[in-house]
Amino acid sequence: MGEPEIDLRGVRVRPGFIEAGAQAAMLADLREVARAAPVMRPVTRRGPMSVRMTSAGRLGWVADRRGYRYEATHPETGAPWPPIPESVLAVWRAVAGVQVDPDSCLVNLYREGAKMGMHQDRDEGDFGFPVVSISLGDEALFRVGSVEKGGKTTSLWLRSGDVAVMGGAARLVHHGIDRVKEGSSVLIPGGGRINVTLRVVR
Ligand code: SIN
Ligand code: FE2
C-alpha cells in the first residue's frame, strides 16, 4: 500500500498507492476508454489548453468557448461516455471514504510541455464528496494553494501510482500542475503523463 500519507495543505497524498502491475492494467483500461471516447483538446475562452482530455462515467467534464460543464455525451461523437473502469473505481472505493461511487472520471493526458494552471474544482453540485486524483506515467510538479485565491502555495512531485485526495476543508483548494518531467517514467508508450480525476457531480 505504498509509503506513509503526506498532508499537502490538507490534500492527502498517498505515494505509491497503486503498484506497478496495477498501473499497467489501469493504463490498458484507459486506452479502452480513449478508444470509445476520443481524447480532445479543449479550447476555452482563454485559448487551447495544453492538456488533452476525455471522460468516462455518467457525466464527462467538457470545456469549450461557452465555458465549463458536465455533459452526458461526448461532444464530438454524441455517444454516452464509456463506463468508469473497475480498476479506477477500486482506487476511489479504497481512498474516498464515502459510500457513493463517482459520476465522473476525467482523463487528462499531458504530452510534452503540457501543464495546468491554478484552479479550483467547483463545477460539481455537492462539495461534500472528495475529489480523488490518480497519477500515471511521468512525474508532475503539483502545486497546492488555499481555498482563497492567491497566497502561499506548496508543491510536490507526483509520481506514477500516487493518489491525491482533496476532501473536507481541502475540497476547494486551488491547485495546478506546473510542469511534467519528460522521460521520468516508461509506463506510457511515447511518454507523458495521465491524470485521472474522479468526482461525484450529482
Ligand atoms: C486537475 O486538477 O484537473 C489535474 C491535476 C493533475 O493533473 O494531477
Ligand atoms: Fe483540478
UniProtKB/TrEMBL annotation:
Co-factor(s): Fe(2+)
Cofactor descriptive note: Binds 1 Fe(2+) ion per subunit.
UniProt keyword list: Dioxygenase, Iron, Metal-binding, Oxidoreductase
Name recorded for this polypeptide: Alpha-ketoglutarate-dependent dioxygenase AlkB
GO cellular component terms given for this protein: cytoplasm
PANTHER family reported in the protein's UniProt record: ALKYLATED DNA REPAIR PROTEIN ALKB-RELATED (PTHR16557), NUCLEIC ACID DIOXYGENASE ALKBH1 (PTHR16557:SF2)
InterPro entries membership: Alkb (IPR004574), AlkB-like (IPR027450), AlkB-like_sf (IPR037151), Oxoglu/Fe-dep_dioxygenase_dom (IPR005123)
Domain annotation Fe2OG dioxygenase: ranges: 101-202
Binding site for Fe cation: 119, 121, 175
GO BP annotation list: oxidative RNA demethylation
GO terms, molecular function: broad specificity oxidative DNA demethylase activity; ferrous iron binding; oxidative RNA demethylase activity
